[in-house]
Amino acid sequence: MTPLVLATALTKTYGTHDALRALDVTVAQGSRFVVLGHNGAGKSTLLEIIATLRTPTSGSVRVGGFDTVTQARDARRLIGLAPQSNALDPLASPTEVLDFQGVALGLGRRRRARRTRELVDLFGLGEHRSARVAKLSGGTRRKLDLAVALVAEPAVVILDEPTTGLDPLARIDFWTELTRLNQAGTSLLISTQDLHEADVLATDIAVLREGRVVAQGPPASLKQRVGARTLTLDLSGAAAAAAFAAASEAGFRADPDRPDRVRLSVPDDPRALAKALTEAGDAAAEITRLHLAEPSLDDVFVALAAR
Ligand SMILES: Nc1ncnc2c1ncn2[C@@H]1O[C@H](COP(=O)(O)OP(=O)(O)OP(=O)(O)O)[C@@H](O)[C@H]1O
Questions:
Q1: By CB neighbour count within 10 A (0-12 exposed, 13-18 middle, 19+ buried), where does 250 fall?
Q2: What atom of ligand 1 comes closest to residue 41's alpha carbon?
Q3: Which residue, 8, 101, 225, 243, has most beta carbons within 10 Å?
Q4: What band does 120 get if pLDDT is binned at 50, 70 and 90?
Q5: Mutate which of 12, 18, 43, 160 to test ligand 1's pocket (most atoms within 8 Å of Cβ)?
Q6: What pLDDT band is residue 300 in, cutting at 50, 70 and 90?
Q7: Is the ipTM beyond the 0.85 threshold?
Q8: Domains, the chain, with CATH or none
């Protein structure tokens, strides 16, 4: 199957600053692809080039097989772009905003009316349909931004840090909407600085640093690359923890911040885990809590930063 997005040796230079450095990215059809990186990593530049809003300095991007420079109109037809919230007319209502977008896209009156109805239903905007944009909550506005991006029924929606500024409940609600939309067939390309957001949302992640992709894959496989899980034991007191650590063959070490706690980084190997648990079993009477944590995307970030 043609990849939805194929970026090859993509470079973007602003003056003397290399924002993207020979970057390769493949986004599969149907995915929720998250570009993760800190401020200035190049996320917006990458998304804007894919969206045909900027031209690469060298290298190329294809969307649905169309080159974003030489076949920009064809590529653009596959893409839905969410506007910045403050770009919407504050005095218009959601139905007017969606209808205006249909006009801007050259859709006929009947199709505009149908699409507006469908999108109001899809995002539960019914009770706000006649309210002014200025009066909507942040979360409802983001849903309206997303609805605007969907008016022309694009194959992929591109969202640059869409949940910045939302409160935690509105973010969770927005993630649910995005996942639902994706399950109904729309691919998503999203940028974020937030590891948790990437973990919750993504089917695939590209970690960007200084204009390069430093890791790419499904969240589970990125975590697997880090390998180690952490086994933590709380013991009945500091003396018990010190004795346990001193006698440990598996390699448990005392936690410098908690004298009654020992920790072990367990490699992704069943024998190593069995050995650690056997030691814990021998001291079971002294253990008040046992906790095994899978690696998190935070661990992936730390591991990548150390390279
Ligand atoms: N128009 C421009 N002119 C000059 N430099 C730019 C321009 N746009 C971006 N840059 C620089 O390119 C680098 C990448 O910027 P970009 O906005 O793509 O990063 P980002 O990962 O989206 O960051 P943020 O999370 O802060 O939005 C940054 O160092 C930025 O200062």
A1: middle
A2: 21
A3: 101
A4: very high
A5: 43
A6: confident
A7: yes
A8: 1-78+154-217 (3.40.50.300), 90-152 (no CATH), 225-305 (3.30.70)
Q: Read off the pLDDT of each residue in 96-100 and give the average, rounded to a whole number.
A: 94
Is 268 strand, coil or helix?
coil
Pocket (CB within 6 angstroms of ligand 1): 14, 17, 19, 37, 39-45, 193
Q: What is the DSSP string of 212-257?
A: EEEEEE-HHHHHHHH--EEEEEEESSHHHHHHHHHH-SS--EEETT
Confidence of residue 278 (pLDDT cuts 50, 70, 90): very high
The structure's pTM equals 0.82
Counting runs of H as helices and runs of E as strands, what totals does the chain give?
A: 11, 14
Written as six digits, the tokens of 245 are 């650590």
- With both helix axes pointing from N to C terminus, report the angle between 138-149 and 94-104 in degrees, rounded to the nearest 10: 20
Buried b (16+ CB within 10 A) or exposed e, 52-69: bbbebeebebbbbebebe
> Which among 228, 293, 220, 233 is positioned nearest to 266, based on CA atoms?
228
